[in-house]
Amino acid sequence: MAEHFSTPYADYDVLAKWDTPSWNEQTREVVRKRLGEVPPRRFLEPDEWATLEAICARVLPQPDRLTDPVPIVPFIDAQLHRGQGDGYRYEDMPDLRASWRLGIGGIEREARRRHDMPFGELDAPRQDSILTAIQNGDVEGEPWDELPPKRFFSSVLLKSVVGIYYAHPAAWNEIGFGGPASPRGYVRLAAGQRDPWEAREIARVDEGTGHG
């Protein structure tokens, strides 16, 4: 699980689009809520929340935002509180709420079984070894006899963590994404082209290509 990432868009700030023709009021309201309305805990128990925070910190580390990380667990909790899913359920898995409870509990039990410590108190290598074992299906017993570990990791945990992270403007800055394309949209769509309001890749400019 990589912890060192250098964005080629270091000088880019998607929020500079706030009062430009790129965004309309509906877009600004969506971004405003994402930045300012972090949901409170309403579904997960405090210990589940703490374990999931530690899990997210290893699945998608944010070493450059130690004091102000992109919030992930609050939005997972909000989805579970609302019972909001994808509109389908895998045949070999319980419902979404039960899957999360079993999965978080299973990761915590695996930490205590292997190291006699809570997951959140383990060092990063031991946390990673547990998550890797679950990702590869190299675990057994409760709760994995009723929750397929590989499917839980890839189709529930990883999908949710990554999806929520990249819905945040801080993550948009890292990848040079301009956010919702409403109402301006994009015009220059061919490879190697960019609209003037899109992010410029510093690396490419430094290499003398003249575009980002």
Shape verdict: elongated
Count of discrete alpha- or pi-helical segments spanning 4 or more residues? 8
Helix content: 40-55%
Biggest sheet architecture: none
Q: Would you tell me the structural class of the helices and strands? A: mainly alpha
- Quick check: average pLDDT? 90
Give the assembly state of these chains. Answer: single chain
Proportion of strand residues? under 5%
Q: In sequence order, what are the helices and strands, one letter per element?
A: HHHHHHHH
Number of strands: 0
How many angstroms separate the termini?
Answer: 28 Å
Q: Nearest-angstrom radius of gyration?
A: 20 Å
Query: Which ranges are low-confidence, i.e. pLDDT below 50, for 5 or more consecutive residues?
Result: 205-212
Describe the protein in words.
This protein has 212 residues and is mainly alpha-helical. It has 8 helices and no strands. The two termini are 28 Å apart. Residues 205-212 have low confidence and may be disordered.
Question: Helix and strand layout, with pairings?
Answer:
Layout: H1 25-36, H2 46-59, H3 73-82, H4 96-115, H5 124-136, H6 149-165, H7 169-175, H8 202-206
Helix pairs in contact: 4-6, 5-6
What labels describe this entry?
single chain, 212 residues, mainly alpha, 8 helices, 46% helix, elongated, disordered C terminus
